[in-house]
Amino acid sequence: MAIRPIVIHGEPVLHRRAVEVAAFDDELRTLVADMYETMDAAHGVGLAAPQVGVGLRIFTFDYPNDDDAPDRGVVVNPVLVTSKVPGSAPDPDEHTEGCLSVPGEAFPLQRAAWARVTGFDEAGRPVDFEATGWFARVMQHEYDHLDGMVYVDRLTERWARAAKKAVRANGWNVPGLTWMPGVDPDPFGH
């Protein structure tokens, strides 16, 4: 297992659809183990393969929940179904998200309150569970990464302007930028 660098907004792999995993083999299991180790070192609640520079449809998560779902797991080739996203403005006190690929920044975003996730684990066994509340938010956030979306791409106009300003101020939106969990300062202050 190894901690991998996390790519920052602007890296092309974050902005294109990831491809399906074709082989459930040792290479996949090594990638998943590395993703868990990287997620843990970064104090993340989820990590998608594109965030470590790998354009495959995989994400890991570690989020205690009250749903009939594992607190920690991996989903390979996931399918996500959600309830309707509320049309109201996001509440900055209740709906603020962060992202390891937009390090140190956080902006409010409205998400669906329920999600169903299906797919496979790293051994090819079926995965199927429902998520509610913040756990549902985590599932949607990680799934978006697999479709080439970073959460700042979904922000309302007001918050999108603030995010673009932060991206410019940090010198992001160019390829080749990363940060290393456990080596670089924790951008979220954990």
From TrEMBL:
Binds 1 Fe(2+) ion. Signal peptide: none annotated. It is an enzyme of class 3 (hydrolase). Keywords: Hydrolase, Iron, Metal-binding, Protein biosynthesis. Its cofactor is Fe(2+). GO terms for biological process: translation. GO terms for molecular function: metal ion binding; peptide deformylase activity. This is Peptide deformylase. It comes from Arthrobacter saudimassiliensis. The gene is def_3.
